[in-house]
Amino acid sequence: MTATAIFISNTDIDNNISQSALELQGSIADTPMKLLSLAGTPPVVLLFSIAVTIWLIKYKMKREAIFYWIAILSNALLTSAIKHFVARERPFPRMEDINSYSFPSWHASTAMALSVALLLILASKDLKYRWWILIWGFAVGCSRVYLNVHWCSDVLAGWGLGAFVSATAGYFILRDNLIFGRKQWIKRQK
Q: What is the C-alpha separation between 120 and 89, in angstroms, rounded?
C-alpha cells in the first residue's frame, strides 16, 4: 500500500480527490466525519487502549496486552518519524487547523494498527462482528480525506503502515496464539 501511496502522490489523483472532498463538504456528512476523525485522536486512542488493556488483563491475556501496546506505540513512533522525514504539506483549504505534516496520516495508521491488532487478538474467537473493527479503521482514514486534512495517498500509506506494523508485531509475539489460539482460549475460560 505504501508503494501505491507514493505513486498516487506523484499524480493528479490526490488533487482530484481533494477537490471532490471539498465539493462534498457542507453536507449532512460533516458531523459524522468529524466524529470519526475524533475517534482517531491521541486522547481517544489512549483511553480506548487503556480499556482494551484492562479487558485483556481481566481475561488473563497479558501477552496480548503487551503485543497491543508494542503495536500501537511502534506505529506511533514510526508514523511520527516518517512525517518529519517526508515533511509533506497538507491540502488547503481544510476543515481543521492543523500545524503538522501530512504524510502519512497518523489517524489512518493508528486506526489501522489498532484494528489489525484487535483482529489478531480476536482471531481465534467466534465473534460475528469483529470485522466491524476493520471497517472502523478504514472509516477513520476516509474521514481525514473528507475533511481535506490529508491527501488520499497519506491515508493509503497510513493504512498500509498501520497494518504492517501490527501484523509484524503479531507475527513475532502472537504467532503461537494465531496457530493454536482456539485451544488456548478454551483453556483460559475454564
A: 34
Contact 178, 131 (CB under 8 A): no
Closest CA to 162 of 132, 128, 120: 120
Are the beta carbons of 19 and 146 closer than 8 angstroms? no
DSSP 61: -
Q: Phi and psi at residue 93, in whole multiples of 5°?
A: -75, 160
Query: What are the φ/ψ torsions at residue 60 (nearest 5 degrees)?
Result: 55, 45
Report which DSSP code applies to 124: T
Q: How far apart are CA 5 and CA 11, in angstroms?
A: 10
Cβ 140 vs Cβ 190: under 8 Å: no
How far apart, in Å, do the first and last CA atoms of the chain sit?
41
Residues contacting residue 127 through CB under 8 Å, at least 6 positions apart: none
Please state the pTM of the whole predicted model. 0.77
| 64-103 tens-digit pLDDT | 898 899 999 999 999 888 888 877 777 666 556 667 766 7
Domain boundaries, the chain: 32-93+100-182
